[in-house]
């Protein structure tokens, strides 16, 4: 019965993930003034890291006129994954930003177990997980959602990692919403 309940929860999470993935770019969200520092504090509260886990947000986060929800979801997935897949409860995540002209480049860096080079090309593919599903509950949809959101907003995302050396996810985000580029 316990196994059956676990599989039903996994199927429900998978269906919800697929629905979320299919909605990206189709649902119109309002444009507003967003303080990225405040957005990150909301995300950190939402993902509720263990008290021993440190999340550092570097100063200098921009204030943008943009759709808040997509960027919030990208950060929630990246920070949530860094916490969920960390092998220790006292992990560290650092979030920084660089001005790249028309875009900002955000980096989410963790000190977790890292991802071996041979698996790095798979992490953004839908349904891909690096750990067996009976060891770590995962739908394999989270990073595919992140990639699709970033690309829908005219950005790009990349992973830098070595096994045992943590991960750095870098993604670009436009300074203006894509509707304003037309």
Structural summary, described in words:
The chain is an alpha+beta fold. Helices cover 34% and strands 24% of the residues. It has four helices and seven strands. The strands form two sheets. A five-stranded mixed β-sheet has the order 2-4-5-7-6. The protein has a two-stranded antiparallel sheet with strand order 1-3. Strand 4 and strand 5 (103-110) form a beta hairpin. The longest helix has 22 residues, at 2-23. It is globular and about 40 Å long. Mean pLDDT is 81; it is low at 130-138.
* Average pLDDT: 81
Total E-strand runs? 7
SSE succession: HEHEEHEEHEE
Proportion of helical residues: 25-40%
- Class from secondary-structure proportions: alpha+beta
Strand order of the largest sheet: 2-4-5-7-6
Total helical elements: 4
Radius of gyration: 16 Å
Which segments are poorly predicted (pLDDT under 50) over 5 or more consecutive residues? Answer: 130-138
């Amino acid at each position: 019965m316990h196994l059956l309940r676990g599989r039903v929860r996994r199927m429900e999470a998978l269906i919800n993930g697929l629905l979320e993935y299919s909605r990206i770019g189709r649902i119109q969200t309002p444009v507003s003034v967003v303080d990225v520092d405040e957005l990150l504090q909301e995300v950190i509260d939402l993902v509720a890291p263990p008290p021993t886990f440190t999340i550092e947000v570097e100063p200098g986060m921009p204030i943008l006129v943009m759709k808040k929800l997509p960027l919030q979801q990208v950060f929630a997935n990246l920070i949530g994954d860094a916490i969920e897949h960390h092998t220790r409860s006292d992990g560290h995540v650092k979030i920084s930003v660089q001005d790249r002209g028309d875009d900002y480049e955000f980096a989410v860096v963790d000190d977790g177990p890292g991802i071996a080079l041979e698996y790095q090309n798979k992490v953004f593919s839908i349904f891909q997980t690096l750990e067996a599903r009976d060891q770590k509950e995962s739908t394999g949809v989270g990073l595919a959602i992140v990639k699709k959101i970033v690309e829908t907003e005219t950005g790009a995302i990349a992973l830098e990692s070595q096994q045992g050396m943590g991960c750095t996810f870098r993604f670009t985000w436009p300074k203006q919403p894509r509707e304003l580029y037309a």
